[in-house]
Amino acid sequence: MSDADLAAHLAEVAGRILVEVRSSGLFSPKALGRAGDQTANQFLCHALREARPDDGLLSEEEKDNAARIEKERVWIVDPVDGTREYGEARADWAVHVGMAVNGAPAIGAVALPGLDLTGTGGGTVLRSDQPRPLPPAPERLRMVVSRTRPAAEAVAVADALDAELVPMGSAGAKAMAVILGQADIYLHSGGQYEWDSMAPAAVALAHGLHASRIDGSPLVYNQRDVYLPDLLICRKEHADKVLGLIAGLEPANA
Questions:
Q1: What is the pLDDT of residues 40-65, one digit of tens each?
Q2: HSE-up of 248 (CA within 13 Å, CB side)?
Q3: How many Cα atoms occupy the beta-carbon half-sphere of 11 within 13 Å?
Q4: Cβ 145 vs Cβ 155: under 8 Å
């Protein structure tokens, strides 16, 4: 199985496991989030160590192992991105499985188990090795933001662009919304970690989108400090405008 096939397969299976855990009806929403995180994490980490024993591994739900720093190939996973949305039985949560190679987001799969695009009752997996055509951008742009705490920078940029705000849950769901034509810009500045953006960034880049820090610098993974607080994913034709608007905000926020 290729690395891309493995990433997609693990994300899809973890998503199905999470749906089964939720459908058991045995957990309150808060307990469900913990049970889902731990169950999916055990599956993903054991499977990756079995399938790719020589690679490094970083997971949100696993104690960090500094040995990964010396590895060129490092798997970075988020077993449940959007634990709150998962616990509330919403659709806007995701499973992230990706691999950074020499710090760059090289391979990614983002499963959206609650989003049934085919009408078969299953979820959707977007993959870095199988890019799909991007729908055309609408005349009025749409910016996807947190449904509970939209970042001030995102709101200010949306105002400057006269963009419509689209509230949504997890980081993976927001990033994939740009690919699926549900939004055009995902701007985040409220704090994230490597597992929040690595797989989505790999999938976005493979689809020809722009993905960077909000100062325009590259996203670099497998660092000792895994805090990676900001992210911009958008169509390439909008990137310079958005980055310019963000830069214009910085003196006021300093």
A1: 999 999 999 999 999 999 999 988 98
A2: 10
A3: 35
A4: yes
DSSP string, 135-198: PPPPSS-EEEEESS---HHHHHHHHHHTPEEEEES-HHHHHHHHHTTS-SEEEE-S--BHHHHH
Strand partners, 111: 95, 125
Instruction: List the one residue out of 43, 44, 115 whose CA is nearest residue 85.
Output: 115
Distance CA 57, CA 42 (A): 13
| Cα–Cα distance, 96 to 222 (Å, whole number) | 15
**DSSP for residue 69:** G
Please provide the DSSP assignment of 34-48 as one string. HHHHHHHHHHHHHHH
Q: Residue 93 to residues 63, 69, 211: CA-CA distances in angstroms?
A: 23, 29, 20
Q: How far apart are CA 55 and CA 51, in angstroms?
A: 9
How far apart (Å, rounded) are the C-alpha atoms in residues 38 and 213? 30
Report the 10 Å Cβ neighbour count for 116: 13
Chain segment 74-133, per-residue pLDDT in tens: 999 999 999 999 988 899 999 999 999 999 999 999 999 988 877 776 789 999 999 999
Distance of CA 120 to the CA centre of its chain: 24
